[in-house]
Amino acid sequence: MKIGIPKELKDNEFRVGMTPAGCRSLVEAGHDVVVETSAGVGSGFEDEEFVGAGATIGPDADHVWSTTDMVIKVKEPIEPEYSRMQEGQTLFTYLHLAPLPRLTEVLCERKVTGIAYETITDRRGGLPLLAPMSEVAGRMSVMVGATYMQAPHGGCGVLISGVPGVPPAEVVVIGGGIVGLNAIKIAHGMRARVTVLETNPDRMRELDDLFGGTVTTILSNPYNLEACLPSADLVIGAVLIPGRSAPKLITRDMLKLMKKGSVLVDVAVDQGGCFETTRATTHSDPVFIEEDIVHYCVANMPGAVPRTSTLALTNSTLPYALALANKGAERAVREDPHLLEGVNTYQGHITCAPVAESQNLPCRKVLDLMPSA
């Protein structure tokens, strides 16, 4: 199979879809890998490293997209890439289609097999390709929150750790999954007072045991959330419903309960965000203020630490990329029900039920659309 690795176009996105080590594994498995020139520079990988791994360097994005059977990316295609997608091509990347009807339409129009990292499952019911970037984003959320709490950024002027004689910041984390857990670890390590709102009582018990009762766990519902907001200096939205648009848990009216200069970090922005006032921002213009509250809603947070993120992502995606390349997409998803869950579009149809429901469109089962084995 011929595999393309284009350069990412999203604002300040420095990650790349595959490391040289990952490319070498694909080449050694008998595949041709074409990497767009300078695609890995932002992550610290020069073209020569990809060549040394057996890949070839494509002169531009048009070449990479037009000459390959499968394209491996990091982020969903943006408008300049729409016309480059080829009928029958497999696209392996984060897609986050629920809030992106136009991209969904293009993938269907061009009959692209869109396989989304974020909906592939594992035997434990987890999301193994979402996990590494969730870990990065969760840890970053506290770091950026602490930065934007500073007064020069419009924040409340609170030091997250406090100092002797002065209390630390109050950090509220909504959701105790992978993003939430990693946010809690960093906030707790920085000596903040941490409260986590979670809907699963078993998860609350796990978090209570993990942190020895030093983190407050509360059942997540509107009443309890409203009770937490007046004292919060930093609120981190860490909710996820796989494939679906995120629920709007903090309304505009709720912002009036918060202190001026408090910070909201919406890690769920890829799925539309979990705050009513969320709108996607970029690393070049990361924050805005609504109702006197600072909002950080960058849709590709891990892109700010591309070296770490690219290495972590390739660690997780490579086995699936090899399966898709070695077997072809159709056979690979037939043989792996967890990879099958990642197919969001196929043969001009939406094949991921949560995406279809979010966009009020019909959904087809992938296996029903495939020719008989």
Highlighted features:
eight-stranded mixed β-sheet; seven-stranded mixed β-sheet; 16% strand; Rossmann fold; 373 residues; 15 strands; alpha/beta
Give the topology, please:
Blueprint: E1 2-5, H1 20-28, E2 32-36, H2 47-52, E3 56-58, H3 61-66, E4 70-72, H4 79-82, E5 90-93, H5 101-109, E6 113-116, H6 131-148, E7 170-174, H7 178-189, E8 193-198, H8 201-210, E9 216-219, H9 222-228, E10 234-237, H10 252-255, E11 263-266, E12 287-290, E13 293-296, H11 306-327, H12 329-335, H13 337-340, E14 343-346, E15 349-350, H14 353-359, H15 366-369
Parallel strand pairs: 1-2, 1-4, 2-3, 4-5, 5-6, 7-8, 7-10, 8-9, 10-11, 11-13
Antiparallel strand pairs: 6-14, 12-13, 14-15
Task: Please outline what is shown here.
About 35% of the residues lie in helices and about 15% in strands.
Shape: globular
Q: Structural class, judged by helices and strands?
A: alpha/beta
- Number of helices, counting only DSSP H or I runs of 4 residues or more: 15
- Estimate the strand proportion: 15-25%
Q: Tell how many strands the DSSP assignment holds.
A: 15
Q: What do these coordinates show?
A:
This protein is of the alpha/beta class and 373 residues long. The chain folds into two domains: 2-119 and 305-369, 3-Layer(aba) Sandwich (Rossmann fold); 131-299, NAD(P)-binding Rossmann-like Domain (Rossmann fold, 3-Layer(aba) Sandwich). Helix content is 35%, strand content 16%. It has 15 helices and 15 strands. The chain has helices at 20-28, 47-52, 61-66, 79-82, 101-109, 131-148, 178-189, 201-210, 222-228, 252-255, 306-327, 329-335, 337-340, 353-359, 366-369, and strands at residues 2-5, 32-36, 56-58, 70-72, 90-93, 113-116, 170-174, 193-198, 216-219, 234-237, 263-266, 287-290, 293-296, 343-346, 349-350. The protein has an eight-stranded mixed sheet, sandwiched between helices. The chain has a seven-stranded mixed sheet with strand order 9-8-7-10-11-13-12, with helices on both faces. A hairpin with a 2-residue loop joins β14 (343-346) and β15. The longest helix has 22 residues, at 306-327.
